[in-house]
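Crash report, auto-generated. Payload:
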Amino acid sequence: MASIKDVAQRAGVSVATVSRVLNDKGYVGHNTREKVEQAISSLNYKPNEVARSLFKKQSSTVGLIVPSIMNPFFTELARAVEDTASKLGYNVILCNSDGNSEKEQGYLDVLQQNYVNGIIISSNTLTAEQVESLNIPIVSIDREISSGLPTIVVENKRGAAVATRFLQKKGCKRIAHIRGTVGVVNAEERFEGYKEVVSSEPWYQESYIVNGNYDMQTSIQATLALLERHPEIDGIFAANDIMAIGAIKVAHQLGLKIPEQLSIVGFDGIALTNVMTPELTTIVQPIYELGEKATTMLVGLMRQQPVEETYYRLDVELVEKNST
Amino acid sequence: MASIKDVAQRAGVSVATVSRVLNDKGYVGHNTREKVEQAISSLNYKPNEVARSLFKKQSSTVGLIVPSIMNPFFTELARAVEDTASKLGYNVILCNSDGNSEKEQGYLDVLQQNYVNGIIISSNTLTAEQVESLNIPIVSIDREISSGLPTIVVENKRGAAVATRFLQKKGCKRIAHIRGTVGVVNAEERFEGYKEVVSSEPWYQESYIVNGNYDMQTSIQATLALLERHPEIDGIFAANDIMAIGAIKVAHQLGLKIPEQLSIVGFDGIALTNVMTPELTTIVQPIYELGEKATTMLVGLMRQQPVEETYYRLDVELVEKNST
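Recovered output after restart:
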């Protein structure tokens, strides 16, 4: 690979002159500039971005830490972050934490040491203190860490209440809930929304609530056990779409007709919900907008531009399909 | 953030001494080492990885360029690459090219300028010359660029022939094919495998072949048109799973019973195929192994270790489910 010295030699100028041309700083005569540009082009010289980032104490990369892109919600989010970052001139380093705090901390260290100058994270283990000790902008997405930090989340509790009330409106008399990972903020909020609607019902009982851990396989096991124990259940609100898809699979296995015998509502609005048979009724989050807004906000913070708003709680909406 | 100077000052030694401790090179007395280590720990000093990478002309990052992680095949592949890279001490920069040659070239430039020291790519636009001009190790995955380059692909043609023959064995008399993106090597190979089995059949005609462009929506449109034009079709081999899932959706829409009236076979073996109703019969690729092997090979090449084999064509197998 050609170096800046090779360029200087070919153009018959000093390295400092080449540097002035590259950085567009200081006076360079027209003819000299042309000679340098020809040398750059003929040698196919690429300015050394690592050296630049050392100089500027920043590289053109942002980090994105999510639990796992195997959940399509995070795939779609990652795609939105990468598209937006790319438009703004940044690359994205993608890290899967598996919701494990050691892996998260490891990635945070590595990203910071590489002068990544901003991070978008969906974490359920980080504390506000840990984030503040990082010295680079962090935007928390999907899961709120602290109300003082830049954050983009959605109306989880309200969405869950809408989903549960919709099942009631559809005539369901016994509505179960498949919870997301215990301790994760948005899972707790969705659980609250469910309870708000049904906890005063005469039929309400805690054994209608099972833990699906935001995971399809776990949801399949939990739903099987739930429906064997409580065949009277005629409605399920699952705290995310992949768990709802797991519940649909169980209904098919047990020969239950959807929605005649069992209605199911999910949460997220991933593209996959439109591919299933039946298509899934779900609380749709503006996933792409979440990723887009988070990235724009992060880049604004990194560039120390005035950022109007650093806390968003975006709205969600129920989209009815054939599972209810 | 603390600098190496701060550490030196706190420990009461020179910067060169701190550097010797950090790099574990040259003599440092036991007491001095302890003082430096205490200073590093109390200042929470993180060695500057960008400076190191400039020195070593490498960073601890590999690049992964895929058409789009929105296709679950690439999501699963990306996850395998990241897991393996992480175990070997590397981060992954993930880039979506959308199969667009300009985007691909842009990412290759950016990655190289940031001293990423190896790239795994699934490309259908790059030429061998372009790859060779890069001066860093490249492993081609899923799509062969040139037989001279490090490559990991699967038995596409054989798998496609197995799929088509299986449909015949199941009693299908009119077998259609939904092609992958025209010009993409693996799509052409799968098309060849289909033709090898059926092109000598008396019923064979070119209008049984439609282009699904490896995309679910395109496949839905193409399958609709195909089945309206040719209601006699009783078997479909789709060149990937998401197109097969699109075809299942169309069958549901048209009220066709699967597999009684229409049998469908896909290609890839993504996790999603087990979630569908009916579950999809498909040619299963060892996706995780593909990602793992590609990463191990790439890291071996980067470290200039002896690499036994640089060309793999892994086997595939038909897994029968309820769509046939």
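Post-recovery validation: The two ends of chain A are 62 Å apart (CA to CA).
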